[in-house]
Amino acid sequence: MDLAGKNVVVTGAGRGFGRALALHAGRSGARLFLSARTLAAARNTAREVTADSGAHVDAFACDLADPATVRDFAQAVAARTDRVDVLVNNGARYLHGPDLWDADDEAITDTVASAATGTLLTVKHFLPLLRASAGADVVNLVSSAAETRNHRSEAHPAFYAAKAAQAGFADVLSHRLRPEGIRVISLYPPDFTDGDPLHPDWDHTSRSADDPLSARSVLDCVLFAIGQPRDCFIRSFHFEQL
């Protein structure tokens, strides 16, 4: 998809899917605003994107569990542009462990805050910039853990709770922003392979129904949804699991 002229914000861009999305968006002509929990991580991805495509990238530190840094992130972006066309809520802490006692109270609080409160506050503080776009999209990387009675993940119960809250917010947000022409698109992937989907040796034609979901397939779903005409509101992607 051609993203030339689009202003794209990606949270959790320091590694994994957020990094891959940033690289692809840079190659597609986007102007990028990337955040990660540490400024060093965001800058590493920004340098990689610039070296790869020459895209214009700004990097920011944003701990999604800290409301002050979310506000600072949005204000810093607003000082550099008058609109945001695509906001990708990718950042969230993953917490492993099936038993409640597998994590301390601080880790549980941080997990819920980063995915649930963090997503809500990110949208809140970027909403003026999204409303200034001629056609904005909010993309939420949720998780199949948010689906009712989906117990396949070995994630901690706090992660399940965080993603369920994020999904509930996305659902009501989609309904309330549709009259303004702002699309809210949520993806509910199971755990997926986190290799580099943009590596030149990556070959999707060799994959089969027996392979686990790949980061490239998730990325393609995002690009498909935001590339649709503005009368097409795709609310969510749900994935069949092995």
Q: List unreliable stretches of 5+ residues.
A: none
Just name the CATH architecture.
Answer: 3-Layer(aba) Sandwich
Helix-strand pattern: EHEHEHEHEHEHE
Helix content: 40-55%
Structure summary:
This protein is of the alpha/beta class and 242 residues long.
Give a written overview of the molecule:
The chain is 41% helix and 14% strand. It has a 7-stranded parallel sheet with strand order 3-2-1-4-5-6-7, sandwiched between helices. The protein has one domain: NAD(P)-binding Rossmann-like Domain (Rossmann fold, 3-Layer(aba) Sandwich). With 242 residues, it is α/β, with parallel strands linked by helices. It starts with 6 loop residues before the first strand and ends with a strand. The model has no long low-confidence stretch (mean pLDDT 93). It is globular.
Record keyword descriptors for this entry.
14% strand, 6 helices, 242 residues, 7-stranded parallel sheet, alpha/beta, Rossmann fold
Mind sketching the topology for me?
Blueprint: E1 7-10, H1 16-27, E2 31-36, H2 39-53, E3 57-61, H3 67-78, E4 86-89, H4 105-131, E5 137-141, H5 157-177, E6 183-188, H6 215-226, E7 236-238
Helix pairs in contact: 1-2, 3-4, 4-5
